[in-house]
Amino acid sequence: MVVINKMDIKVPLAVKKMSKDERKKYDAQEKYCKENSIPFFTRMGKCYSCNKSIFGENIGLIKASTKLITGCPNCGHSFCE
User: Fold this and answer.
1) Burial of 6 from C-beta contacts in 10 A (0-12 / 13-18 / 19+)
2) Considering the chain, what percentage of its residues have pLDDT values greater than 70?
3) Separation CA 33–CA 50 (nearest Å)
4) Are 31 and 65 in contact (CB under 8 A)?
5) Residue 31 or residue 16, greater confidence
6) Cβ pair 77, 50 in contact under 8 A
7) Which pLDDT score is estimated for 2?
8) SS3 state of residue 65
9) Which end of the chain has the smaller Cβ count within 10 Å, N or C?
């Protein structure tokens, strides 16, 4: 069995630059995905299409911790199609 130290996993630059509030939402979504064994589509922290933060004002902490985020709340781009 291979054990990966969480510190060895590279954190995307966009995540490092997040505000404290955005980082809480990001961490909540990551935890939700791990606990439910579902894909973590928002790993980069920003949209691939519009380049805006996924965890800004349009996503609340409750939504990030209870629902799978599959698209950008800013431009509507889908991360799973």
Assistant:
1) exposed
2) 86
3) 23
4) yes
5) 31
6) yes
7) 46
8) helix
9) N
What is the residue extent of each domain of the chain?
Answer: 37-69
Residue found under tokens 């909540």: 28
Banded pLDDT at 12 (limits 50, 70, 90): confident
In single-letter form, the type of residue at position 64 comes to A
Grouping H, G, I as helix, E, B as strand and the rest as coil, residue 36 is helix
| Phi, then psi, of 48 in degrees rounded to 5 | -70, -25
Task: Round to the nearest angstrom and report the end-to-end CA distance of the chain.
Answer: 33
pLDDT score of 64: 95
Q: Give the tokens for residue 75.
A: 């431009």
Place of tokens 């800004």: 56
The C-alpha atoms of residue 18 and residue 24 are separated, in whole angstroms, by 9
